[in-house]
Each structure stands twice: as C-alpha cells, then as structure tokens.
Amino acid sequence: VNNIVVAIDGYSSCGKSTLAKALAKKLHFIYVDSGAMYRAVTLYFLRNQTDLSNHDLIIDALEHIDLNFHSRDYQSHILLNGEEVSDEIRQMPVSESVSLIASIKEVRKAMVRKQQKMGKSKNIVMDGRDIGTTVFPHAQVKFFMTADPKIRAERRYQELLAKGERISLEEIFDNLAHRDFLDTTREESPLTRAADAIILDNTNLTEQEQLDFAIEKIRPFM
Ligand code: C5P
Predict the structure, then answer these.
(1) How far apart are CA 75 and CA 188, in angstroms?
(2) Which residues contribute to the annotated binding site for ATP?
C-alpha cells in the first residue's frame, strides 16, 4: 500500500498551516511546513549577507544549510544548522525577503528535493505554494486554499499581535499582497491551482468546518 500525501497550497496567510496541523493531528500524519524551509534559508542568507546576484555563492551556501524539523506536537519547529529559528523566521525581515529568495531556481531545487524525500514512505500533509503542482504532482488529495485578502491580513495581524510583534495591519496587508504577487508571477513553479486540486475558500468557515470538509475528502484513501 502506498503512503498518503495531502498537498495544501494557496495564498499567504489563508490558514493552510492551521488546517494542515489539525489534519496531521487527527489522522496521525506527519506535518511538513514547506514555507518554514524557504524562510529558514532566507534567514541564513540575510544573516550572512549572501550576494543574491551570485549564483555560485548561492549554490555554495545551500550546501552549508542543514534544515531539520521537530515534528513533536505538530508545530512547525525548525532547526537551521541545529539552531531553533521557528520564531525568528516569522518576523518581518524574513517575511519581506522570502518570496524573492524563493524565486531562485537553485533554492527551489534544493528544497523540492528535501521535501520529496520526506514524503517518500510516510503519510504526510505538506503545505506551501507548489506542493500539488511540483513537489507531489501525484498526491492523492490536493487542496487549494483561498480567503478574502482583508480577512487574511486581519488574521495574521492578530497572530503577530499575540506574539508581541509591533506591526500595523496595513504593513501586513501590503506584505501579503506583495508576496502573493511574487509567488504567482515567478518563473519557477509559480503558485497556481493544480487542475485536480479541491478549492477551499475559508472566508466564512470555522476551523472545524474546514477540518471536517478536508477529512471527508481524505477518508476514501485511508
Ligand atoms: O507559507 P509561508 O507564508 O510561510 O511561506 C513563505 C514564503 O515562502 C511564500 O510567500 C513563498 O514565497 C515561499 N514558498 C514557496 N514555496 C513553498 C512554500 C513557501 O515559494 N512551497
């Protein structure tokens, strides 16, 4: 029997990771936050002031980046060369640069390779931008999530506020719009709905309703 892969793609801040974590918990699947990987690479490049116009430097840097997940309690704890960076990768400097760095071909190649390895033999749910199109084109179940942009910004604002971040709703709205623009227009595996992905617009859905909807689609494969 093949392992089950659930791919969740969609725009920034529309609840992908919330749904993915809830699914993983309920179904006892492994949760992989692919965005955290791009964010950790971005943090590494920012810290090292890597010259992004130098492709040899980028390739060399990628060889020095070791990424690991703690998947305990299904939170996206990520280790960058052994250091826990889960909080730092959510902060604004990383959010502002990540989509640029995620558009670099070499970066994507390295991340996709890692992600495919993780989904080889285990039941997993992975969220991101190109999971159903590029990473796992044969995933048994694919979701494409969307939500009203104002609602998305509001949700992310509340989340960051709770963590004590000082940031305005407007800044968040602009960052989300900017990332969506870069993510949908880049050359390398842009964000787009896979033809066989199920659309899930959660503007007016509770977390429980989304979970029930998703489980109903996954059950037949279990
Ligand atoms: O999911 P999250 O919002 O944390 O992702 C941060 C950024 O990483 C996205 O805006 C996108 O530029 C990039 N990303 C990507 N492909 C993925 C996951 C994330 O390009 N599979």
Answers:
(1) 28
(2) 10-18
Q: Are the beta carbons of 27 and 209 closer than 8 angstroms?
A: no
Reported as a single tens digit per residue, the pLDDT across 129-188 is 999 999 999 999 999 999 999 999 999 999 889 988 889 999 999 999 999 999 999 999
- The conformational region for residue 121 under phi > 0 = left, psi -120 to 50 = alpha, else beta, is alpha
Asked whether this complex has an ipTM greater than 0.95, the answer is yes
DSSP string for 103-132? T-HHHHHHHHHHHHHHTSSS-EEEEESSII
Output the CA 9–ligand 1 centroid distance in Å. Answer: 10
* Rg of the Cα atoms in the chain: 17
Ligand 1 midpoint to CA 25 (Å): 22
Domain count, the chain: 1
CATH code, domain carrying 185: 3.40.50.300
| 6 C-beta closer than 6 A to ligand 1 | no
